[in-house]
Amino acid sequence: MAAFVTLAADVELEQGRLASFELSGQRIAVANVDGTFWGLDDACTHRQCSLAEGTLEGAVVTCPCHGSRFDVTTGERMRGPAVRPVRTYPLRHQGRVLEVEL
Predict the structure, then answer these.
(1) pTM over 0.70
(2) Does domain 4-101 have CATH number 2.102.10.10?
(3) Residues of the chain with pLDDT under 50
(4) Domain locations along the chain
């Protein structure tokens, strides 16, 4: 059974911004879209570039390396060269604590 665990204890992430956090050796990108936090693998499925270093427009992140685009709410690939979606994670943001469900 999956459970929520603390990803970060003191989070301030402005709307329209991305950040990367590490949990047990795994990088998880977090996007703030209109006050809602979304979690996804922080590695583009094309060449493993950090999506948190990309740009966020609405709910779509653009990879900084080759321009692949993904919907942060579903992980769906919107544009290549990536051909696979990215994995997403349910998040809870309570106060300044950010939790992820694994």
Answers:
(1) yes
(2) yes
(3) none
(4) 4-101
